[in-house]
UniProtKB/TrEMBL annotation:
Superkingdom of source: Bacteria
InterPro entries: Cof, HAD-like_sf, HAD-SF_hydro_IIB, HAD_sf
Organism expressing this protein natively: Bacillus lumedeiriae
SUPFAM superfamilies: HAD-like (SSF56784)
The entry's keywords: Hydrolase
Molecular function as annotated in GO: hydrolase activity
Claim: Hydrolase is one of the keywords in the record: yes
Family annotation (Pfam families): Hydrolase_3
Record-given protein name: Cof-type HAD-IIB family hydrolase
């Protein structure tokens, strides 16, 4: 049997619409690992924001912060922080526009305003242990920041896209966009990991649903879109599985032949 590695997005892929891990997904990933395959995570979240999921699934390899911080079996193998000078300019421009920014290191998240409704609405949707990052407008100045969150509506995002060429802006909420280095993505992080492992693209699978999963699903040999994915994601995926709330992970792993003859709790 040829060993493979399977990358799973978190929100809308591993976690259902209520931000819970379906029992069928947990069982399917356990079976996948028992078959000798590697299970990994590829997410826009920072490591501190999915520690419990990694522990529950016993996963020690992940592409986090949309590809900017990559860990293989507990060892950091790739880091790609945002340009500090450009981030300073972005912070100044957003402040003048009365838009909030959150700064994400691999350890924490801080915000440049004490409180903003857009921030709370966006963060609350993730159902983390907090609904608004604590206030520290200087947080980005003395450490590596791998991703920022810019809080504005889609009508306002064009102002930023046209002005900041060193950053990519990827919307994940009606009030928030991920801010990552230009040219970076989950795909780049996955590439770094499979180079270390010596895997070909044909040995790589990925499951996702969001706009930040498009490059990942295009890059791997076997991209699987969730049934609840955006149409743009489904259009580029090699396979489409069921909705995350309808045993989408278990069904998808059977669909691509990695769990032949198993029902994984369905």
């Amino acid at each position: 049997m040829v060993q493979t590695i399977v990358f799973f997005d978190i929100d809308g892929t591993l976690l259902d619409h209520d931000k819970k891990l379906p029992a069928s997904a947990k069982e399917a990933i356990h079976s996948l690992k028992n078959e000798g395959h590697i299970a990994a995570i590829a997410t826009g979240r920072a490591p501190f924001a999915f520690k419990e999921i990694r522990e529950e699934l016993d996963i020690h390899s992940y592409v986090s912060l949309n590809g900017q911080y990559v860990v293989l079996e507990g060892e950091v193998i790739y880091k790609n922080p945002l340009d500090t000078a450009e981030l300073q300019l972005l912070s100044e421009f957003s402040a003048a526009s009365q838009h909030a920014i959150a700064y994400m290191s691999h350890e924490d998240i801080k915000c440049n305003v004490p409180y903003h409704t857009y921030v709370e609405d966006s963060i609350r949707s993730l159902k983390l242990s907090f609904s608004h990052p604590s206030y520290d407008p200087e947080y980005f100045k003395n450490r590596e920041i791998y991703q920022s969150l810019l809080f504005c509506t889609d009508e306002q995002e064009a102002y930023y896209i046209s002005r900041f060429q060193k950053f990519n802006f990827v919307r994940w909420h009606e009030y928030s966009m991920d801010v990552i280095p230009t040219g970076s993505s989950k795909a780049i992080g996955i590439e770094k990991m499979i180079e270390k492992l010596g895997f070909t693209k044909d040995q790589v699978y990925a499951f996702g649903d969001g706009l930040n999963d498009i490059e990942m699903l295009q890059f791997v040999g076997n991209g699987v879109a969730m049934g609840n994915a955006y149409d743009q994601v489904k259009n580029i995926a090699k396979h489409i599985t069921k909705d995350v709330g309808d045993h989408g992970i278990a069904h998808g792993l059977e669909l691509v032949g990695l769990l032949k003859g198993r029902k994984a709790g369905i």
